[in-house]
Amino acid sequence: MSPLPSQRALGDLVTDVLREMITGGRFQPGQHLKETELADALKVSRGPIRQALSRLEEEGHVELRRHRGAFVSTLTRTDVEEVHTLRGAIERLAAGRACTRMQDAGFAEMDAVLEQMKSVDTKIDPEDAVRLDLQFHDIIYAYCEHTRVQRVWESIRGQVTVFLRARNASFPDFLEVGYSEHKELRDALALGDPQAAQDGIDKHIVGAYERLKRLNLPDR
Known about the structure:
Residues 8-75 form the HTH gntR-type domain. This is GntR family transcriptional regulator. There is one protein chain. By secondary structure, this protein is mainly alpha-helical. It contains nine helices and three strands. It folds into two domains: 7-72, Winged helix-like DNA-binding domain superfamily/Winged helix DNA-binding domain (Arc Repressor Mutant, subunit A, Orthogonal Bundle), CATH 1.10.10.10; 77-214, Up-down Bundle (Four Helix Bundle (Hemerythrin (Met), subunit A)). Helices cover 71% and strands 5% of the residues. Strands 1-3-2 form a three-stranded antiparallel sheet. It is globular. The mean pLDDT is 89.
């Protein structure tokens, strides 16, 4: 018989499940997340649920309100600006390092993702668009050889997922710009010049940010 997971391991597992449910749209912004209902649904005690909600608050997915409980965070203009500027800072660093470290293997991984993007010639599901987008950028972080940058990316990746989903839902232009913009970034990285890679990142993510700023979001 396999040993039961430790309390910490169980908390991590519950965190992953709830994070995926939030970023996947299972729970809506502002929705009340009741500990007892979540515990019953996941067949765990309230301890791991409480631990998971605390972690998700740190990541920005959940808001814990005193005497009221946990609520799914609502996307605001402040959230978009803060996550965008943080992502821009760490991805510039990641790209500047990765472009000199990727070599053939890394670019082969990118090309495989680009081929999937290129093969989409009809309407694409927003979830698939987000998956391909993040899969491409994960490669940059994987090859930057900077553990702390990778950790920061992991801490905001879920929020970036939410932002990309909102962007794709309101501006479904992935068929027009998904492949071309990522191919342009890939070519900038392939130059092996850190400055060119960083300039490529700046150009690449500004478009998504400009679209997000056009959404009707509360200020904070």
